[in-house]
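Quick question, first post here. What does this chain look like in 3D?
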Amino acid sequence: MRPVNFIDMMAHLLGDIPPVLVGTWLVMAILLVVGWAAGRAVRRAADPTLPDEGATLRHLGEVFTEWIDGFVAQVSELHGARRFVPFFGSLFLFILAGNFLGLIPGMEPPTSDTDLTFALAIICFAYYLYQGFRSQGVSYLKSFLGPVLFLLPLMMPIEIADNLFRPFSLGVRLYANMFADHQVLGLFTGLTYLVFPLAFYALGSIVCIVQALVFTILAISYVRMAAAAHH
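> Answer (accepted):
Ran it through. Tokens below.
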């Protein structure tokens, strides 16, 4: 018996809008509520300098913020990397939440749809181009011309193709892995509902985390290459 797909049901009830849009809205709503609650917990703390005891929402939020701050700084290796933290922190959390949504029975991860993964990739593409021009100004265009002028006819098409391929590879990688992971999980949990599927849920959780990390690391690496002063 085929399990009920609640994302498809909600999409139909809302007027036959694309299911990936419903999944995206759901992930955004969850993150907005959690973010609001975590911010409220910080504001209501008696002493913001003292951490909470135990795994409270405020404590988890502070731990994640500290981790993503160090993570972005370590991967980017750029001075003033903290200015990238809001973007990449939001990107990582969104992809992670979207991935984990597919582990809930009856749900489908929006990150298993190319419409979303390519949209995320294009956003990252625009962001790293912006950071390149912000850091180097018009000189950033020199990175497309090659090391010496006489190689320009050869290097410029290669550099342009390389830059255009980056968002494509980001989108395809995330989509392919999450689509395959969701299909495998659905197949084996449909065969048996006792004990055996737990191993696939554990593997699925690892895939969700790894794919969010890989996408974010690659996006940070592209920004690092664009923002670094090579010329």
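The chain has a mean pLDDT of 85.
The helical segments are 6-13, 19-43, 57-76, 85-101, 114-136, 152-191, 196-227.
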